[in-house]
Amino acid sequence: MRPHVEVIHEDDYIWHAAELAGGEGRASERRLSADEEDGSCSLRVDFHTGWGRGPGIHHATTEFYVLDGSMTYGGRRIGTGGYLYLPKGVPADAVTFAEGTRVLHYREYGDAGFDPVDSLNAPRWEGAREDVIVIDSAAMSWDAVPNPGPMPGMFIKYLHVDPVTGFYTRLVHAQEGWADHRLAHHPCYEEAYTVQGLMEYNFGTLDLGTYFFRPARVKHGHFTSLEGGATWLLRSDGELYNWYTENAWARWGGEAINWGPGGGRMRWSQSAHDLGRGSGRRSEHDRELLGVSLGYARQQGASDSDWLPPGHGPDQSLVAIAKAMDAARLQGGHGPGDHSPGDHGLADHDHGLADHHGDHEHHPLEWGADPAELEHAHERESHNWGQGRAWKPGDPVPAPIVSSLPVRSRSRGRWDGDGL
Questions:
Q1: Please, where are the H alpha helices in 27-90?
Q2: Backbone angles phi, psi at 325, to 5 degrees
Q3: Over the stretch 357-374, which tens digit does the pLDDT of each residue have?
Q4: CA-CA 20 to 30 A from 384: which of 88, 120, 153, 334?
Q5: Residues annotated as region Disordered (predicted)?
Q6: What is the C-alpha to C-alpha distance for residues 181 and 171, in angstroms, rounded to an integer?
Q7: Across the chain, what does the average pLDDT equal?
């Protein structure tokens, strides 16, 4: 599967000779992300000369989106905004790209292989489905997204939706001033390339040429759309459901044996006060927009907590530990008056089994959902051709994944707790 990439700028990646089998011409590619298990990848390709290849069958589901220049498919020429969807195992017509054209190129569930065919009447592969799609997205109108977040101002152009798996490719635009103060995770992966505008979010700054590939279940959010709004080409390998988290924290520790300053007990934490500093990089305007988002949500009846940058407000990890200790005492059968204030040391509060003799009932400590219930039941199968994501409404919601140090740009990543 692909690594978490968030957030990089394409200029931080080197150029390779483009892997475009069966064609004539010269092109270079930047590999934004790649799956070394099955060949899936997301690429930025520049054509240094005119380039083309004849009819054939692609070994991977293949997409092209024209950022600048033009492409011609089956005799139809399309400029900037042109989109071409070529299903795996389905005969496709000849395609060419003009010199100087810049595109986004995606391959899914397969490698760069290409088998030439004599005509479009060549047999499809077993299991192949769907048909070629050719779209001039520049001629499409923007529609309001069905679920824009806590406030209106987000719009969409659907380029492709797989009717079986829910895999979809779309253009998304957030108008200037749109914001979302929440953290979300999804059952599907989500990737995007910024084609216009400026946005801040918890992992950094999205501007022209930035890219992320976020695996399923990684939390993200705290979005603010700035000058001119922001537009992305965005893809997901299944229907995108939003599961929201407030007051996020994480805590980890252990006994250092031969590492760390002096060894001893070491702790890593992204709960608020343990950071020792806030995010520091978000502007006052950003914070104002997140406050507007929160206020709008509350006007609509939401009970969302106040938004605070990391390093501010109560330490939610310590609050959770305190609540768990209270629950343990209560479920142990002791009322609030059963102990004096100093009675909770281990030596003074001996609960050996022999001491109880049925005097009161013990209940299991409730820590929340069983971790096994929060896993994605078919995570591996979701990466197989045509499988999609198995989650559907009513299933247990898989828990978020904490990914604190993904592949990041030298210039765009936010290297503090706001990236939790």
A1: none
A2: -65, -40
A3: 445 555 555 555 665 666
A4: 120
A5: 331-420
A6: 22
A7: 85
